[in-house]
Amino acid sequence: MPTILAEYDYTQPQDKSVQPSQQEVQEVLQQLREIPCTPQFRLNAEIQRTVKRYWENVPGAIAYLKEAVRTWKGIKSPEAVFVVACKKGRKPESAQAKSEVTAWFEWARRQRIVIAMSGESVYTPDGEAVALAEMMRRFPVGE
User: Fold this and answer.
1) pLDDT per residue over 64-114, tens digit each?
2) Strands annotated E in 77-120
3) From CA 47, how far away is CA 57, in angstroms rounded?
4) For labelling alongside 74, which of 15, 39, 56, 106 has CA 20 to 30 A away?
5) What pLDDT was estimated at residue 38?
6) Is the pTM of this model over 0.70?
7) What pLDDT was estimated at residue 71?
8) 130: helix, coil or strand?
9) What is the C-alpha to C-alpha distance for residues 18 and 79, in angstroms, rounded to an integer?
10) Between these two residues, 11 and 121, which has the higher pLDDT value?
């Protein structure tokens, strides 16, 4: 079965007006069934409602649950982790970090602190290349 959410950019906002087809919902539910976790993920009416209601958050929530299964010491209810992640729009740490960098860069560019970014470097208006982490430390958003 093809994975419809494999190449998903978690940093881009999704169109909230898009409603999933029944087939898309079923594919997501199958992905949830296949997540290797203990206890085994159980599908119920609440999970199905959550997938439909928070469709735009589902890819990030699946990735968040997979990261939780991989990194947390124990999960008593993978269903609860998934539902909360959907409702709150949670994403895996790596996607959150990427999103924060993007937000910082956009802010810093509007402030004319930087003019470009490439990899882990940003460029100041005078053309100097500086480590991204250093610039984020020197110039926190809003200050």
Assistant:
1) 999 899 888 888 999 999 999 999 998 887 766 677 888 898 899 999 999
2) 116-118
3) 13
4) 56
5) 82
6) no
7) 87
8) strand
9) 24
10) 121
Residue holding tokens 């993007």? Answer: 102
Three-class DSSP category at 104 = helix
Q: Both tokens of residue 20?
A: 């999933």
Rounded to 10 deg, the angle between the 22-34 and 45-53 helix axes is: 120
Rounded Cα gap, residues 15 and 106, in angstroms: 21
Q: Please choose, from the candidates 73, 85, 89, 3, the residue with its C-alpha nearest in 3D space to the C-alpha of residue 38.
A: 73
| Contact of 98 with 119, CB cutoff 8 Å | no
Whole-number Å distance between alpha carbons of 36 and 69: 8
Find, among 43, 77, 84, the residue nearest to 61 by Cα.
Answer: 84
Q: 32-74, pLDDT tens digit by residue?
A: 999 888 888 898 899 999 999 999 999 999 999 998 998 888 8
Could you tell me if 82 and 65 are in contact, meaning their C-beta atoms sit under 8 angstroms apart? Answer: yes
pLDDT, position 52: 93
C-alpha to C-alpha distance for 59 and 69, rounded to whole angstroms: 16
Angle at 84 between CA 75 and CA 38, to 5 degrees: 20
Contact 127, 95 (CB under 8 A): no
